[in-house]
Amino acid sequence: MSRRPLYAFAAAATALALTLSGCASSTPEDAPEAAASASFPVTIEHAFGETTIDDQPERVVTLGWGSTDAAIAVGIVPVAIPFDGYAGDENGVLPWVAEALDEMGEEIPVVLPAGDEPAYEDIAAAEPDVILATYSGITEEQYDLLSEIAPVVAYPGEAWATPWRELIETTGTALGKSDEATQVLEDIDTSVAEAAAAHPEFEGKSIALTSDTAGVFYVYKKEDPRVEFTLDLGFVNAPAVDELANGDSTFFYMLSYEELDKLESDVAVNFAATQEEADGFLSASYSQVMPQVQNGTVASVVGPAFVASVSPPTALSLPWGLDDYVALLSEAALAADAAN
């Protein structure tokens, strides 16, 4: 199962085309009430119907993106987690997950083998009380098979499209940890607000988030989660991003190299899997028409882990990558001041 177009440059547009959107997993009134008291059963609506969890889960299996992080962030270590072949280590474990578990004094859970199909036998062997696939690409058939093992919380709308905040909230509801989930979100909001306050050079500057991989140039729309939280730092979405947009996706579009001169903004972010890829974009003949390249106001986010930490952010990855991301943005924003 793949994620969304910019999380995995290695898999080009599909590997990171995690289209985020979706409807609520439970009503705003019901979710906090059910989880705040940790009362069960709880019922969570999703794309395949609804799932009722009779008792507070103790053994949790996570699939897809972000559910592992959210569970750990609210204090629950899963018994089995997905293999991440893009930003994970040789064992498929993401760096922020490994660090969080180390801080908790916990061992790495069973890492499920990667594949187009869920590892049903391995999941069953983990004896889960619940399977969290809130941000995933499982099909209805796969959902039905997984449901024979344990209750499954699927995505609320489109596959690979659950808003990262909603994922954390849904995880809190499913695990009887809504208070903890609320605190996780408040802590993240505080960190982002503090970063914005510490960098007044961000305020009001226009920004465009992009990637250039395998001969295709992507521009990320304001609906994309990495753009959303970047704007929370004080930037504004460049008008050109909206003006040049087409119907490729809710969250991104492809822009021809011939039109790069039209993508005007004070600052640009370019996501790249390797330093070679980042340098190749900055030195390419087609990028020289971009005002951001001419003015040295491109912030290059380089490396699978760094890219994945904001694509989209999770309960653990956003705090993990925030300082480095802010430092790159600050350098580009100050360069924009100098250019003006």
UniProtKB/TrEMBL annotation:
The keyword rRNA-binding does not apply. It comes from the Bacteria. Residues 59-333 form the Fe/B12 periplasmic-binding domain. GO terms for biological process: iron coordination entity transport. It is found in: Cell envelope. PROSITE patterns: FE_B12_PBP, PROKAR_LIPOPROTEIN. Residues 1-26 form the signal peptide. Its main location: other. It holds the Pfam family Peripla_BP_2. Belongs to the bacterial solute-binding protein 8 family. This is Iron complex transport system substrate-binding protein. It comes from Glaciihabitans tibetensis.
